[in-house]
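Appendix C: a fully annotated inverse folding record. The material below is reproduced so that readers can follow the format used throughout the book. The structure is listed first as tokens, followed by the designed sequence.
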């Protein structure tokens, strides 16, 4: 049936459909479009690799996510990292342990929303902790301490603190 319609309309079947597609693509800058898309993909892959290195494989501070938490972020900026979770490039989290403000570098929230990870702290001062692109203001009774894994940190309730 298709052949009859082709004959009736005088349409020839292309020998190589890809050749026709490439010819048509020239008319709307297909080569430039392809170059840009490949560059964009390369940039995305580099960004994902950077997030994995910093938030999955590298030293990090792990924060528990629990009830009473409030957060704000731009949903258009989320970066999925598969089984590792989702990166929030910028986020503000408030929880019983204090307030985390991430302006760059991201935080990784695990798929079950049990923990968040930021890069390891670079500054520990009293009730304030900071790292590359983030700051954590601790609520009374909470502290950041190193774990047995070199370079890793946990946020825990201070066992010496009295309940308010």
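Designed amino acids, in order:
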């Amino acid at each position: 049936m298709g052949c009859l319609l082709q004959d009736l309309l005088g349409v020839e079947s292309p020998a190589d459909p890809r050749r026709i597609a490439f010819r048509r693509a020239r008319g709307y800058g297909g080569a430039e479009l392809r170059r840009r898309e490949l560059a964009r993909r390369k940039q995305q892959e580099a960004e994902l690799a950077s997030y994995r290195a910093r938030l999955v494989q590298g030293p990090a501070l792990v924060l528990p996510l629990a009830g009473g938490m409030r957060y704000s972020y731009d949903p258009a900026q989320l970066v999925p990292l598969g089984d590792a979770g989702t990166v929030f490039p910028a986020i503000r989290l408030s929880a019983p342990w204090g307030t985390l403000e991430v302006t760059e570098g991201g935080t990784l929230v695990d798929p079950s929303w049990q923990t968040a990870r930021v890069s390891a702290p670079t500054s520990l001062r009293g009730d304030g902790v900071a790292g590359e692109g983030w700051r954590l203001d601790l609520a009374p009774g909470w502290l950041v301490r190193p774990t047995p894994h070199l370079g890793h940190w946990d946020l825990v309730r201070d066992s010496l603190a009295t309940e308010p």
